[in-house]
Structure formats: C-alpha cells, structure tokens
Amino acid sequence: MGISFTVLSSGSTGNATVVTNGETTLLIDAGFSARRVDELLKERDLNGGDIDGILVTHEHSDHIKGLGPVARKYNLPIYANEKTWDAMDKSIGKIAEENRIVMDSGEAKDFGTLRVESFGISHDAAEPVGYNFYEDDEKLSVATDLGYVSDKVKQALSNADVLVLEANHDIELLRMGRYPWNTKRRILGDMGHLSNVASGEAMSELLTGDTKRTYLAHLSRDHNMMDLAKMTVRDAMEERGCFYKETEFQLCDTFYDRPTPWDKVSKRSIDPVHQPS
Fold it and tell me: Where is the Metallo-beta-lactamase domain (predicted)?
C-alpha cells in the first residue's frame, strides 16, 4: 500500500499527525484533549482504535496535552526517549508499564514493513526528535520545533519524498509582535523555532529529484500566514539558486484547526534546477 499521512493539526495550539501503511497506523504527538484528538481522527475516517502507537517528539504541552488520556483510553503504547519520558512523566499521568517504550534518539524500529527512525533536533526541550518513515523505497520525514537545521538534520531529511517541515514565523512580524522580548529571543534562537527564511534556506539544500512536496508546519497564528510562508520559502530558495516547477514540486498547507487531506507518499522523478548564486 505504501505510506500515507495526514497532518491532523499543526501550530502552537496543538500538534498531531497520523502516518499509516495500511497495516500499522501511528500517531505523532497528541497535543490536544482526548476529545479533540477523536474529533480530528474522525474527520479523516479514523478512530482511536485504529491507532497502533504514539510517537512523541518532545514534552511541550502543545505536543502531549492529550497523550496520557488518549493512551489510556485506547491502551496504546507510547514511544519516546528516556529524557523525554523523564520530562513528561508528571504531566501525562499513569501509563501502564507495558506501554512505556523507550525509543532512543537515532534508533530505528520496525512496525511490520513500516520502519520508523528518530533523529535529534535543536529545541529547548529535554531531547527533542523528528521522525523518518520508510516503506520499500518511500520516505516521509517530519521535523518541526527546531531552532535551526543542522548538518545532521539535513542528512536525516535528505532524499525524502515528502517533508513536513517547520516554517513557524516571519521574522519581522515576530519582532514587531506582542510577545515580550525574552519570548521573541527564545523563538529566534538556535533552540527555538524555524523561521520562513530558515525553512527556505534548508529547502534549497534538501530539494532533490526525490522530493515532491513539503508541508509547511507549525505556523504561528500571531506572526505568520500560509501565503506569506510559502512566498518567503520560495524566495529564499531562489536566492540560493534553487528553482522548481510547481508541476514537479509543491509547497503545501497545514492548518491549526483541521486536518490536511490524506496524502500518499510515492516515487515520482522531478528535476529541480539549481543555478549558481
């Protein structure tokens, strides 16, 4: 069947994504109440009983708000590294011992024919991670909540067919916004969130003949807009000599209040044109 996914919701108010290959269905994060998670799943013709496990990126509340209730309601295993378990233990309540599964940063696990690999990212959490999903020759990569895209992260994301990548804020909108300076400094720092420009810079290096789509995720409702994010990302790519045809590569929307349509990861050759800067 191959890999399919839907970003159930993405933003500072909550995050959750579903990845499936038809045999195994995994939820990445549960940053909403259990009721809201159920509602979002229902919008994509799923229910909690269809989920086989929950992968955790990090312990911030917009990623684990409903983690404990959802796991208990559906008796689901939770996968997280040791430092993340320690950081979120008191927040999520009691979890059955058999459902407390340590997945080290950098570790890969096989769920039938679906392989899941975590990789470390830079964020102000205990040990935050992104995830790669592999099935046959398909690759889906998910990376949000990262202050910058390090060489190791670029290596982890390389040759993905589809990316879910953070484009959190427009730098000028954030600087002029209502947040206190300490919060702005945190967001702008290397352990904060990825700006539209930084996302575009990363994409200029990551876009290859394998990459068909990038979903821009975790947009700030106060300091960003999807049209602005896509324009800025594209401009940043072109400034670095990376040009593409929209029939061959697409920048795609995510939403804070509803799921993206189901998308299927499949191979399709494209030929982005890089010109020297």
Answer: 13-218
